[in-house]
Amino acid sequence: MERLKHFGFILLTLTCFSTTALAIEGESAEQEELIRAARLDPYTVNPGDVLSISVWKEADLQAEVLVRPDGFFTFPLAGDVEAVGRTVDEIRISITEKLARYIPDTVVTVSTLQIGGNRVFVIGQVNRPGDFLVNPRVDVMQALALAGGMTPFADVNDITILRRKGHVRMAIPFRYSDLERGKSLEQNIILQPGDVVVVP
Q: Measured between alpha carbons, how far is 1 from 9 in angstroms, rounded to an integer?
């Protein structure tokens, strides 16, 4: 009988340990998922950004360049280089390939000096309409806060986000009162550079 009691105690202890281990494993997986969701994507260059470019051991190939509205910049020997929508590492690879015909074993360094093109715009019935430099990103609610919130005359359920992708234009609806009640949270999208939040 004593042996059975001892066996039962061991079995109960193992069961509790397994349950606790599963709970900890579940929490760990949930935490990893939250960390993955919060991780930022690499920054991609926008028109108006300023980049610093240098080629190792080449004093004449050091420059600060402004990304033009067409998405390109000009660099000696490389000519026009596409920048918009690319990371600095992708730009570095592009310059390296262009210079390879002139300078073998080229070592190129590219860094971002000024993020001037990463802007969103808030207009209409807000207290401080204008353009806002965002670093690295903001959602609709944060943009409205940057604009000082909405005036008493704002139609909070008829807000629109205007977005342009190439030649395609989109109008994305946003109902503020839904988010106030904790509903339709998917509306609170991350804004992209150039987005315009219109508050009628």
A: 13
The answer regarding whether domain 119-199 maps to CATH 3.10.560.10 reads yes
With beta carbons less than 8 A apart as the criterion, state whether 41 and 53 touch: no
Fold of 50-114: wza like fold (3.30.1950)
Q: Would you list the domain boundaries of the chain?
A: 50-114, 119-199
Rounded mean pLDDT for each run of 10 residues along the chain, 200 residues in total: 50 49 52 50 87 93 93 95 94 95 92 88 96 85 94 94 87 92 89 93
Q: What is the DSSP secondary-structure string of 7-33?
A: HHHHHHHHHHHHHHHHHHHHHHHHHHH
Residues paired with residue 114 on neighbouring β-strands, in sequence order:
50
| Predicted TM-score of the model (pTM) | 0.65
